[in-house]
Amino acid sequence: MKLNKVGALAAVSILAFAACSSSGASSAPSAAAPSAEAPSAAPSEGAPVDDPLGTVEIQAGEPVHVAYWGVLSGPDSTLGEDSRQGVEVAIDDLGQFMGHDILLTSEDGLCTPEGGATAATKLAADSTLVGLIGSACSDEAVGGIKAITEAGLTTISPSNTRPALTAPDRDATYAGYLRTAHNDNFQGKVAAEYSYNQLGIRKAATIHDGSAYAEALVGVFEAEFTTLGGEIVASEAIAKGTTDMSTTLKTMSAAGPELIYMPMFVAESGFLVSQIPSTTGLENVKTLGADGHYSPDFLKAAGSDAVGHLQTSPNFSAFTGDYAGFLEKRAAKFGGTPLSAFHAQAYDATNMMFAALAKVAVENADGSLTVPKGALRDAIYATKDFVGLTGTLSCSATGDCGAPVIAVYEVTQADVDALVMPATPIFP
Amino acid sequence: MNARKLDRVTDVAIDVFMWSFKAVIIAVVVVGSVLTLLSGTYTPADWLELVGAGLTQGSIYAMIALGYTMVYGILRMINFAHGEIFMAGSFGGYFALVALASTGMLSQGVAVSLFAIGLAILAAMAVSVLLAVGVERIAYRPLRDAPRLVPLISAIGASLFLQYSFRGFFGSGLYAYPTPDFLKQDAPIPLLSMRWVDVLVVVASLAMMTVLYLFVMRSKLGTSIRAVSEDQGTAALMGIDANRAIVMTFVIGAAMAGAAGVLYGLAFIQVTYFMGVIPGIKAFTAAVLGGIGNVPGALLGGLFLGLIEAIGPTLFLSGFGVPATNQLKDAVAFTMLVLVLVFRPSGILGERVTRSRA
Amino acid sequence: MTAVAIQPTDMPGAGAADTWNLRRVLQISVIAGVVAIYLCLVGIVPVFAERPLIVDVLELGQAALLITFGAASYLAGMDQVKASWLRAVVVGAIVGAITGAFLTGLVLLGEAIDLRSVFLNASPTLYALLTDGIVLTGPIVPIVAGAITGALAAVILGLPSAIRVPLVIGLSSLLFFGLFAGLLRTPMLVTPLRDVARFMFGSEGLTAAGAAIVFVVSVGTTAIVRRTKPRQRVNALPPRQRRLVVGPLGLLVLALVLLFPLAMGPFFAQVIALVAIFVLLGMGLNITLGLAGLLDLGFVAFFAVGAYTVALLTSTAEYGLANWGFWEAVPFAVLFAMLFGLILGLPILRIRGDYLAIATLGFGEIIRILAGSDLMKPILGGPRGILNIPKPLDVPPTHWLSGPVQIYYIALAFAAVVAFIAWRLRSSRLGRSWMAIREDEDVAEGMGVNLVQTKLLAYMLGGAFAGLAGAISAGLVGSIFASSIQLQLSINVAAIVIVGGMGSIPGVVVGALILVGLPELFREFSDYRLLFYGIALMVIMILRPEGLLPSRVTRRELHTSRELADVPDSELVTDEERREASLP
Question: Alpha-carbon dihedral of residues A174, C265, A52, A16, nearest 10 degrees?
């Protein structure tokens, strides 16, 4: 009886190893790829395409598959939906790629590292996938990037702004990660410089909501502001989901700041701004926010209390491309105004990816396409002077492609009445 | 023999631990408060401002807590969907108020505005009551005789169902209550710095809870509810329709939650599909603090929780130089909860249900 | 306890044989009509109107409505079919038509007044969808579609069971494969089966050819199984021979489990690894809640302790303290979680029932808040979290054990070990003491159970399992953030234990598969999967209040004395046997 069991286990383990070796063989780069003698649009050297990271074969009549990953559900979903709409408009503009349709699928990353890991793992397992746009939240990128890099794929994020993601000392597993979003090191710096130099603020208070995004921005702001010679009189924080800000505001008012730096998301920013007027001691304080609540929902939440509120966000008026045209196309497809601030970056990321793809994809005699994944990644990193909506983009060796164009906006009564975020910056 | 010795040693060790646990928390509270007050960062006026904020928040907690406490009293189940009933009321009131606002009622003076708000509260109550009765009928009634924790899971299911149904109906964006401007002005109340809307919240909730208390204590239906809470079997023998009493409990709790939804919307503006989760948990905490199944306890627990949240973090912790004390608001509140339960395992006022059914 | 009987509500089929029972027909129609309107307004119909089940033939949005029509008619027809098939068909058509009429009403109402200012989905797109038939257009479409679907459903109902059952199973398989086609296609594309995958599955939904194959195969298989009755035959065998059949089957299942990630690719491995982590958590809570009856809604705290311990001890990035290997850190994670169980358990020893639930919930929240706070940031990293937690097995990315596959095996192995420990514990003296205090603390104490030690051990052992789960989870994700510590996790674990069946070890596995695994497979439906998660919790609890796989002991114990008197022992045993018989 016992022997039986041992034998069975042995059989099972042999099976397991047999299976793994067979699956290993089949996932190896297909050497049997048909040799391409037909004219190819890319500067190919002919002959079988070989790539250290493997290739993607797209049969004639099959679509070129790209994916968007990022938060699409829950309270933060507008961030992901906004970017995905940008990607969709870009794909509509591209129409076809080398005679193939373009297929976009999306995967929800839930705005958490775990969700990002699952989404990325699922996409990385898809052998038809050429490249990815995403993630939406920086947390998702932290969780998911490893799976993508190890699958030989490359992702371009339109909305991750966390500095660490493209820091010079980033991990080797980040090789497949680039972004067209600006780096928050830059956004925080602009906020600090604007406050100190333009507004003449010397005493500032900061507040974050416990999110990695706000906490990082506050960190940058405090460092830069202190370097300039200003003083941080209060560093406050609240828990996400807090509705009553009066205690926090009271603590801040006791420190007597001239400005509150509050790079939080829509809900908390709304509560904070609308409760400032009823806090004694903060009647004349200025508020400066960031792109996290650059959304009409913020104006809804804060109402006329938002008038005079300052905000850093991508500089839409400095966008070199046809941004107005983009907005029209977007409105025709999805209606209304953009949901968040990163649609244009998503549009650029998509176009950047396909521009690089056009350089490396090899068209074979039977109408199929071969995409070498490693070459594609290199080509994306090699992007230089790419003209997009957000500016002229060049990628750094650590994946920063975003045009550093941050502007400061001021909310006016007209903006509140129309429920549209201000589009013309007051600085620069 | 050794086992008994071990038992005695552990008993002593546990007693020592419990005493030091209580002592440490109380010491932190007392020393922290003294340090904070001595530092003189905050003026008495500042503290009173915080009290005002705590009262507003606490009144809303209290109104929601009522539904928890009554349902718990009669069915001994945690109605996890109650936060969503509150959310639904807030949405119902929002659409009613927007419709009324479009007729210009909110800009025709204080009396008309208050009347419109009253109508919105009625609409909110209707929506909440409808949903609560539906949830009771579908998700709870079939489980009346099931093991105690089964309705709890069903309630969590109902809560998610309601939450994401509203997400589907109304989207994930936020809706902003059209609070009339006069409510945002400061009210001339000595000492406490409060806006009119805060006054409205506190007064309305106190009034509604008083009426409810009288109803439960004096009316025939109220008596039947109390009877069923006390002992369902005996009540049935006395000719009381238990089902009717139970449904009535849900109706009352939901009506209060619906009204709280409107008051919340007026005070805090934002309405979203997930707004019920945190107030729901807080209100349940308030119900436990006050003593479950106990109507005055819900009020007391709600106000206590609101005040602790408003004053606690600053008073207890800022004296120690803890960074960003307000971030720890909920941690302070829950520590106080545990402390209260350690001293009084059945809440401040004690529970009004018989132990045998626990 | 309660002596109040539940009012008799709807009595299905009461006196149905000779009357039309119009009241019931109307009742079903109205409920179905409300459901149909709900499906439209909540967004399921319009949002998934482009999501194919069968490419170019049937979309999910429309299918949802057709299923509503069909199910309502099927239910209504069940009373009638005994009288006559024709009558059932007529009733089916009527029910379908009334249900459809509700949608027609919605369209007409929507065209008269602006519903969209309240309901986002009441858009012209929805109305177009509802009024755009194959042959005709206009508001009449839902009524006609409802009548036809309803009549068809009733026709199926009247067929002899030898045809009806395979047909229904065939249709269900279409739905199943239509939903999961994309998921199945992806792993198949890297195997020699890639052409089969392309032929049968689109990137979303079945191809028409694939649908035909799935339908024929499932109908055929069901018909054959029904004809040959393999299960009954096996059951009829003498025990010895039965073992000969069941044994290899069990081994086959084991082999499938072990080969699963290699065949199905890393995504499925990731999902199952996640399930296994929740199985560990569930086993832990199964001790605290399932056996000892202590409702702990702050279970995430132990998970956090385990995850952060591993993170601090192993991380090579900022905040890492020791740069240990994963395996050296795991015992400490378990130990600290256990210790935390002790510290948490002591103050709440004398708190009972639901007061305990809120006190533990409070502890969970305190841990969550502290982990993300500025106060603890210098140690735990606050919102930035702790990064670069090494994988348990250090293999190159190309190795077959890299990524989620290794976590799959590790989590599975741990789950098996923990299940064994939990199973041994349950039948131990300690386990019986736990069950005693679950039933009645006072009596248990009277019987000589040391309440203090027994309760503390429940917290400590439950915590140890959860700490282990946290440690593995940290290894899986490779990082830990304050935002990963969520109250929802505690609630999910409690749901797993109760849905599976309190105190039942196989129940935890089934609960985790359904409540954690399934939602992961439905990722593409974003928020709607939580909607269905909620519905599933309610439905499971209403249909099986004792859980999906209750243990015999627990089941008997969970019944109060009064009920126990009503339920003879023999019935419990029969039930148990029936359950066993239904296992493969």
Answer: 120
